[in-house]
Amino acid sequence: MIDPRRLRVLRALADHGTVTAAGQALHLTPSAVSQQLAALEAECGQQLLRRRGRRVSLTPAGELMVVHANAVAAELERAQATLAALDSGVQGMVRLASFASAITMVVAPAIASLRAGSPGVTMQVQDVEGHASIPLLLDGEVDLAITEEYRLSPRTDESRLTRFPLYVEPFDVVLPITHRLAGASEVDIDELADDEWIAPKPGNPCRDVLMIVCANPAIRHVSDDFHAITTLVAAGEGVALVPRNAFTAVPGAVAVPLRGEPPLRRVFAAVRRGSADHPLLKTVLAALLDAAPGHANAGRGSRT
Known about the structure:
Protein name: LysR family transcriptional regulator
CATH superfamily of the largest domain: Periplasmic binding protein-like II
Shape: globular
Radius of gyration: 22 Å
GO molecular function: DNA binding; DNA-binding transcription factor activity
Organism: Amycolatopsis keratiniphila
Keywords: DNA-binding, Transcription, Transcription regulation
InterPro entries: LysR_HTH_N (IPR000847), LysR_subst-bd (IPR005119), WH-like_DNA-bd_sf (IPR036388), WH_DNA-bd_sf (IPR036390)
Helix content: 40-55%
CATH topology of the largest domain: D-Maltodextrin-Binding Protein, domain 2
Largest sheet: 7 strands, mixed
């Protein structure tokens, strides 16, 4: 028999790349992770890992077992949701990770709605960058993530997630009010080729968007805080590309739409596949969808 708990360890290794990182995600020592993986190999009768010194990679058999591990995890989530549905009373806490502007636009209004309509349901919110919330969700640190993708970026691993679209927003260019284009109704990105930029840090998808739409931008300052970025723009330190709902008015800076088809940020809620029918998550997801801009036209059956 294959122990499903050991499949979880294998998944963590595939997610995080090293035994040490997998142990940190699972709150296990590296030695315990190695022991669990060795036991799983014995149960499977196959070599699942290639070991080169301290480095470990998956064999074809290991990659196949990760696929099965994902399916087992989804069924366990589904079983938990079914059992929870037997309880007629919906109450408990949902742990949620979201980036700041989505907390303002969607999460906080949803909490207020739940307090009025479902007082037994509470949320514990973590403010994290959008690209960091999915790893927290897959590691089991949160129950629900609000995150983002971009028109020019690849989708995340859909075999492990159920997604609920919330809203779509374009990127605008943020300029100092003294900039030559600050009074324009629209700006062509090519008109800013000689400007210095204030951008998110490497690894942040918003920085990737800038690198795609603007050839070789001269980046002067970096920050993952859009309010800080806007403040630097207002100080005359450069220009920036900011999602529309992440822009907060600062004296000395103005947001101007881009001409043509701007890059888009698609914001969605995600849960682990199999857990979407859990009564607590269904209640919170309904509140989030109700709070999302334009929800009346989006429909509630838009799982993707």
